[in-house]
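User: I'm curious whether this sequence folds into something compact or stays loose and floppy. Could you predict its structure so I can see for myself?
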Amino acid sequence: MELAGKRVVVLAEDMYEDPELWYPYYRMKEAGATVTLVGTGSAETYSSKHGYPVRVDARADDVRAADVDAVIIPGGFAPDRLRRYPAVLRLVREAFEAGKVVAAICHGPWVLVSAGVLRGRTATSVSAIRDDVTNAGAEWVDREVVRDGNLITSRTPADLPAFCRTIIEAMRG
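Assistant: Here's the prediction. I'll summarize afterward.
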């Protein structure tokens, strides 16, 4: 169990991209991490783009960066909702500033933009938000996964194996 004793948060909101939430959730559990699904607090259950529900374990208001080792931000259109909640942005910013792993895929970097953590970093995303990532001060590159220190980003569901592999490598130190 390569991540035994590690604590991972996966963020959730309505319109999440199904595989970008569930693949990391189960991959981190498989590696031995304790995984907590965290929502904005607007509901206890959120629906994916395809109607698949996820019941969260906690609200972002109740989670502290000091208590986790990684925060994972799935894509879909959920990030456009997640970025509207100060508690989500606080959690992401504090985790990032504390050197914890912060990972975002697809539209997930929208949350990184709003949390103000991209300036001077190299990142990727789905190409549709390339301008947002660039305008936030990051150098955008088109690669399946980009690790810049404790920041990990990927583009699409096809990149999930590399995304999860890189998260696990980063958490192992």
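Summary: The chain has a mean pLDDT of 98. The helical segments are 18-30, 78-82, 86-97, 109-115, 130-135, 160-172.
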